[in-house]
Amino acid sequence: MESSLIDSMMTASRDFFRLPPEEKRKYSNLLDGKHFQVEGYGNDQVKTRDQRLDWSDRLHLKVEPEDQRNLAHWPIHPKSFRDYLHEFTLKSKIIKDNILWAMAKLLGLHEDCLVNQFTDKALTYARFNYYPPCPRPDLVLGIKPHCDVFALTVVLMDKDVAGLQVLRDGTWYRVPTLSNNYNLLINVGVAMEVMTNGVFRGPVHRVVTNAEKERISRETCRFVEDISKVNLWFHVTIRMANKELLIHFSKGMNLVTRKLLRLDIAELSP
Ligand SMILES: O=C(O)CCC(=O)C(=O)O
């Protein structure tokens, strides 16, 4: 992906988050100011009165299939936001397809196996995260610990400010920034973990806040249409292709539910 496109996308995202609140509210994720919907600009869905909220604003947009875009949620300011997002979506798809080919090869499967799981009806969402400076980073997270439920996520990270952390064996590891470059990070989601019978794992991750600096990230996440069907198909294929890859998940949806439940219960503290 050209660095000029990455720069333009980052600048357009920053400019959007700097718009006055009344302008951003035109794209609100609260219908009639009350009813939460996934798409649009805003914060977490508030489910309980004592819920701890994330220290971040988000803009969430469906970008694929192209004919299902709801342009009412797509900002018209800054002016080129929509064009950059369209181009960024196309380029991210090429990156994801390349990664899916490589992953299939690593599994000893035909290189098209994973790519073919995504028809042109597969959903892709773009999510823009804005983390303002936070006076008490010890008390609040930018995003709580979670696993992505999607198949693959391409994350475009802020080049100056780190914040993303990954959990491994009970320890949080900081994902560094690469100086002078925007980092494109590929995150494996739970759907991919299910599809590959756990060979590729979807990591638990979180975002910490920063007392002085704001941070922005932007990502595109790809869904499979029906995870349970994909999983069943893969059970057969992987078993045939590589005998030692034993099936360790009987049903994809069970794994997704278990992982999310575990996170809910543990509510891993910062
Ligand atoms: O901000 C980041 O670097 C990652 C964001 C993230 O994990 C998410 O949006 O689910």
Describe the protein's architecture and organization:
- The protein is α+β, with helices and mostly antiparallel strands and 270 residues long.
- It has 6 helices and 12 strands.
- The strands form 3 sheets. A 6-stranded antiparallel beta sheet has the order 3-4-5-12-7-10.
- A hairpin with a 2-residue loop joins strand 8 (164-168) and strand 9 (171-174).
- The site of 2-oxoglutaric acid has 10 residues, from strand 5, strand 7, strand 11 and strand 12.
CATH superfamily assignment? B-lactam Antibiotic, Isopenicillin N Synthase, Chain
Could you say which structural class the secondary elements and strand pairing correspond to?
alpha+beta
CATH class: Mainly Beta
Uncertain segments are 225-254, 259-270
Distance between the termini: 34 Å
Q: CATH fold name, please?
A: Jelly Rolls
Instruction: Indicate the overall shape.
Output: globular
Small molecules bound: 2-oxoglutaric acid
How many independent structural domains?
Answer: 1
Strand ordering within the main sheet: 3-4-5-12-7-10
* Helix content percent band: 25-40%
Reported for the largest beta sheet, the result is:
6 strands, antiparallel
Number of contiguous helices? 6
Radius of gyration in whole Å, from Cα? 19 Å
Strand content: 15-25%
